[in-house]
Amino acid sequence: MSVATYPNHVRDSLSTGKFILTIELATPQATIPLDEAIRPLLTLAREIRDDPRIDAIALTDRSRSDHDHNPILTGHRVAEVSGKMPIVHWAGKDRAVRNLETDLELAESLGLDTFLLVTGDKVRHPAPDRPVRYLDSANALDVARQRSRDFLLAAAVSPFKYREEELVNQYLKAAKKLRAGANFLMTQIGWDMRKFEELGWFLNQRGYRPSLIAELLFLTPARSRRIRKFGLPGVTITDHFAQRLEEDAALPDCGGGAAFRRLALQIATLRDLGYAGVQVSGLARYPSVVRLLDETETVARIYPTPEARRQAWGELLVGKDGRTAEVAPADGLYLQAPAVTGLSGIPKAGVGAGAEWARFRAMDLIDRLFFEESSMSARTLGVSVRRVDPRSGFGSVLRWTERAIKGPLLGCQTCGFCRLPVTAYVCPETCPKGLANGPCGGTKDNVCEFGDRECIHNQIYRVSKQAGVLPNLEEVLIPPVPEAAWDTCSWITHFRGDGPKVTRLR
Ligand code: SF4
Question: In terms of Cα–Cα distance, which of 179, 181, 234 is closest to 206?
Fold first, then answer.
């Protein structure tokens, strides 16, 4: 049982409706000893202790490097000093269910109960001697929720996608995360206010009424340059917006004042849109946070209505040439138009599955003939296959045979727990993160974060749409591959009934 020992202002504010402000800090790299590395974090923690306007500090997980300090241990120190429950981020990259369980146990023992569970971005330096596996955030949420009803769980979502497949997939996966146990959603960083609005609209349209917290970044021209040079998965700063920021760079304060004004207007507008709060990154010092709070009060005073605030936001984007900087691609898709989606939130026209559809039908037929219990051939096959020990010599022959047939056809990695029938016959192991429950937030223009392929979840979306089963993408939770099953033949797992169960979430 979890025992929360710190006042949880995020939880309280979610229930009272007070607008939430949390400050995100990067958990430092483990190259420096913890006590020394977290000194600046503890300074801020001490300073916010008696400031009721700041609800929590959030701590990232392996955002700086593959080997950052443990955010749970860091979070505990922050909680002790700030007297406030932190939001501890936990990323599933290079981790499995057992790692999550160990970490949740540690967190519980330290009195921490609030987590943002994410899949995580690309591992920077993968170990050469073993594959990198990811625990999908939907599975992580399910595991955490099963462990404790008392956890306050957040899930990530990015509305900043502009093609149908990646956009609707994001929203359907967000819905799945809510069903799996998330109490609220935290957005990716972005500047497209229409997209912030669209996210709430889509989920409300489909009957979810989640609390939304927007992740915002204090964006200076220098930071924009850095992000555009080195990249930040899922974050887009368009050329036009970057140019606009460069005009601010020429000001005496190098664009600092405009950055505060822009951020304050975003906060005020998000409050107008019904967001439960914001999480701000890029401000690590208390005087800067106080300046932001003052600026937010100022914009509320100068621009007293939502319309005035929206207009002011637009005016801040106008450059010297008189043009408004575009913060999104010119031909980007927006769903909030009845002509586009009707009441379902899903575009009526748009993508079709084409040749993928024929492949889906063929694979479905094979599945029915050879693997479904009701078929005679499946029953006959099952009698002999279920007797085979997966790690025996004959088990290896079957694994080799499966790989030889399904490898060239589907990219099969003989994971030992075949999920093809619930992934529209697209192998989840062809996703570099091995995600089966939907995409991560790293796609851009429908392309995988790894940059070498179309996101495989686009294909799953297209086929599911054509088959009329899109709700599966928000309702069906596909469990992770058991570690013991890897490198065995999935046919044996199937006929023995050994695999974990796919569930339909309520
Ligand atoms: S889900 Fe596993 S068994 Fe099925 S095709 Fe992919 S790697 Fe092979």
Answer: 179
